[in-house]
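subagent[fold] <- orchestrator: predict structure for attached chain, return tokens only, no commentary.
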Amino acid sequence: MAQKALAPRGPLLGAHMSIAGGVYKALLSGKEVGCDTVQIFTKYSLQWASKPLSKEEIANFHAAKRTTGLTTVAAHASYLYNFAAPDEALHKKSLHGLIDEMERCEALGVAYLIVHPGAHMGAGEAAGIKAIAKSITAMHKACPGYTTKLVLEITAGQGSHLGYRFQQVRQMIDATKAPERLRVCFDTEHAFAAGYDLRTAEGYERTFAEFDEVIGLDLLVAFHLNDAKKDLGCRVDRHEHIGKGFLGLEAFRLLVNDARFWGLPMCLETPKSDDCHEDREILATLRGLLAA
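subagent[fold] -> orchestrator:
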């Protein structure tokens, strides 16, 4: 009888890497700085228009996955999208962009496409959640049978952005057709800014117990590892280098040693220079937090 594969002895630590020069370059850069996993954009994130991926680009990406061994890859959707927008033109534009990115991820063999759900812009939370679910349902209909999963990211709740309470994310999932195709990403800075305190063992356990009760840990497939420039409950989305913000190292020590999440991609989204030396240093710091 074949033996069951053992879970990885630790988290998959990585970073968001640039796609300048081609999407496959992100994998090569990630390998160079010591990533176990990478997050990418599938196109330039602050432009609506984009050229389709060529067969060569897709082939290069698959070859780079084999060469680097970085087989667990997540993508982050464009920051331009707002699936809760009351403006119908923006809503439709966002949906078309999402479908395009899902098609790109499917072609590249990217497991997860992570999105910010959207901001209701004065329409109210209930209307915003309904609009988000409408967009996701339309995307699922346009992308039948896709292996890429759409992943809703916990937000900081800045402005009128939705998804800063676990209950809101649950409502989005429940209001969507084919909810079994959805997953969730936990951003440490966003959760902290939204009021979830991860700095002590008690706060950490309380947060993930609530997450499990409301959303379900089985839906949690990815983490963004970011410290916070502002204090608990500020509702401000500002990332800081690990250990240099209000979250501090203890929250990350608890997280990387939590065996429930070993094998899940955990990517940095912290500021860095062109040579990415900050990523290399922070990844070393995180690995140093792992218990022997």
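orchestrator: received. Logging for downstream: Residues 1-6 have pLDDT under 50 and may be disordered. The chain is about 40% helix and 15% strand.
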